[in-house]
Protein 1
Amino acid sequence: MLSIIIPVHNEQDSVFPLHERVSAAMRNIGSDYEVIVVNDGSTDLTEASLKIVAGRDPRFKIVNFRRNFGQTAAMMAGIDFASGSIIIGLDGDLQNDPADIPRLLDKLAEGYDVVSGWRINRKDGMLTRKLPSLIANWLISRMSGVRLHDYGCTLKAYKKDVVKGVKLYGEMHRFIPIYASWQGGKVTEIPVNDFPRSHGRSKYGLERVVKVILDLMVVKFLASYADKPIYVFGGFGLAGIALSFASGMLALYLKFFEHTSFISTPLPLLVVLSFITGVMSILMGLIAEIIMRTYYESQGKQVYLVRDTINLPDNK
């Protein structure tokens, strides 16, 4: 079973062409499929159009949000409702080509856990979309270690077991390949088609780069230090205390060897502020350690992931 997840927001003119294109692409695949369309709080006639499509084709299943929560929440809802062992993400604005889905599945069959689409010939403005995307993709690849050219392409195929249990927030739907890779999954990408937007307007702008960078910092922190937050907070705290000590030594040197009064330099203030900041950071790290241990122990979670076992019960 394949589950195709399509988030939509104010895409009333795209609903019927989208249904036709997806149905045509899936006609020759020879596999059962479902299409979960998540209506992300649309305020136009998108919901009415989706009801018509769902009435004609029971394979199209609709999830209506009460209000607009964003694409990441829509993808998360689609994953939660999906019953297929393979999940495919697809944009609802007709820029992704459903005809690329068989190629994603073929690549997935080669043993990969995630196959990401790469829009080589992207049909978007250079300054408003392409350039910010290039910068964001470069930053994500450098910080995550997962080298992909196009994290922003929604057209991706996942094995459900690599996204099972993943909780997404903010703009983090684009980081699913990173989560999969950090859990031992094999990730690759293939070129896919990209069409110019024919209806409506883009919901993204230059501010998305800032959101992506902030979300990437969260992902990096959770991947590297979620189990040992004291390494971050404690390291910052020790650096603050070291700065306080160095500032104090400099102030004493200036006082006794250069005959410079304490109050004529900002060093005493720097000593106090950096010392207090350092101590507070260490205390925050200890609190984070307690919270982390409470999280794991209260829910019976493990700090490791097992791929499979031999001659052992599955529930071990």
Protein 2
Amino acid sequence: MALKSPWATIAAWFVASRLVIFAIGVVGVGSFLNQRSGVATESLAALNPEATWQKWDAEWYERIALHGYAYELESAKGQAAAAFFPLYPLTVRTVMTVLPGVSFFWAATILSNLFTSAALLLIVTSLVSFDDLRGRVLATIMTSAGSFYLSIPYSEGLFLLLVVGTMVATRARRYELAGVLAGLSAATRVHGLALVAVPAVACWLDRSLTARARFARSAATVALFAIPFLIYLAHLADVQGSWSAFVSRQELWDNPSPYPFQALTGFFHYPRRMTAWLHGAFWFLYVGLLIRYWRQMPLGEAVFCAGVFVISTQQEAFHGIYRYVVPLVPLTLALTQDRPEIQRRLIAINLIFGVLMILAFVTYNRITV
């Protein structure tokens, strides 16, 4: 059955979910104490989106967009910027250069919403085959606990678009293009390093190609994937003095020795840290979903999801898992083909957790990270 009016369905879910998120943010910032200042924001100021949402990583993206990675390197703060990947803030900087009167917040917010809208359109037109699944897919994404990051000055919207673009290009057997898009995602978030599995595995298993062609195109895909990330590393080496600055500077974020599955040890090292248990529970929930559905996905997409989960454990305790699962589109597509009651239960969990995280985010409460 052909899809009908995809924009209407997207607009309905997008606008409704953003209005609810905005309202929760206003209530939170205007009703609860700001954990940094110790006072609540005045009611009128709470209506200012910038006062509500320009927080946490958004402050670092603004710093990079305005000053780059070479700014104030003599300070710990200047060096700590290396932990953030460049594609999103540089894209915002480009818009600000073209439109110099636009502030970082509004340029970044508009871009995030455009990236998210484009990703949703690609999902419902290129990845969903039936009308009855379209609403279910959008509902799962737009009600997820971390979906508010898709509309604020964060890299999630761009990363989601690159994930979807990589999947679409791979399914069209345009493996080299998918490799480029995956490489751009690796210059957006560290989880993008896992995305190369989508085109590389699909190309290697493509029986319509000869063995020689599979090898050549897989190698080309991986090489094209590596280019954006290597450019980023070379830039860090030039301005921050080290190719591995994005790893070594994790020490400035209380994570001196990142390694896979380190977060699991956090349950023993920090048994009273509620954030670790909350975010860890989300990790186990979604790992369980991946175990349930991985056979319903192309192998490369399942490997990508598994890679994101592994990368998400390299910190000293679980952080931000509810954010990291939002772009796992292959898992979302598999979920929406299961029984509706399973999706409804997951949405209920995400709505409860999402409200808590929004309130924590806008008040600088560390539980959100």
